[in-house]
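Problem 12. The chain below contains 340 residues. Write out its predicted structure in token notation.
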Amino acid sequence: MKHMMNKFSIKHRGMSLVELMIAMLVGLFLTAGLFTMFNMSSSNVTTTGQFNQLQENGRIALAIMERDISQLGFFADITGTELIVNVNSSNSATVLTSDCVGEGVNNATFPQDVPAHFRRLWGNEYTNALTMVCKAPLTPDSKTDIIQVKRLVGPSVLAAQLEANSYYASVTANEIEFFNGSVATPPVKLNSRMWKYQHRVYFVETDSGIPVLKRRSLNISGGMSNEEQLVEGIENIHFLYGFDNDGDSTPDTFIPAKNVSTFMWDNQGFQRLVALRMYVLVRSIQIDRSYENDVTYTLGDKEISGSVNPNKSNDTDYKHYRRKVLSTTVVLENPVLIRN
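Solution.
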């Protein structure tokens, strides 16, 4: 009987308190290890995803602006010729309901009857005063650039292809006439072709805490009040303008807009604007409070801190965003033709 009771008690014996504590400790170590591995994996996924997003958003922003800027100043067969109202330029189009007029005497959407160069390109860095006047107010973020581009858009079109809400130009080698796409009978000149006319302004503006690359584009109903959101996360854009001073059609120096004089914008004295260097500072969309940005980013001649908001020193979230700078250089083929 005693043997059977001992056997019964041994068979149902449980873990001692020491064994249980050891098992729990081992389990805690295993759980902590797994949690650490999971946390590291999750952090790596977030970091990789944000860097991929930065690269893609920056690439798209550069591609969109480069498409316009590379063709600025294209005016079909009259490219490279100064547009002078009542000499080789006329305008039968309706008056714009809302224009954006950049700095300079002749920098509205259409050429003006004034003794000044019609600017196909102009830009500046917005600080405290905006030198571009828009009837529908333009409100870019401070310390970012704005740039305006004017050109004809190819290919040429037939009368049946005209869009009623767009402006067009009838062009020959000697003259250009701007007109509405809704006109019943487009102006026809000897050996003329018709092209869509475009005026665009690029800038950065913050919406609901997210910086966005935006664009104003010309049409008849809205003039220059039509605003598009292009790419989220573009925190700053900056341009350096490349001038050719010795006649070889290659840039000898790149300078910011603040150093470009009226004399230089107007392509006088063999100072030809032949290239642009574009920079974009891209910011992640989502905040990551486990990350602190202590990088200083260089956009040509300009430096931007990744830890302190240059426009709002008490912005505690600013340093928790990842950022990246992308850049490219664009050769301006059409302004080169002005000299050649």
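Discussion. The helical segments are 2-11, 17-69, 262-265, 333-339. Students who got a different answer should revisit the alignment rule from Section 12.3.
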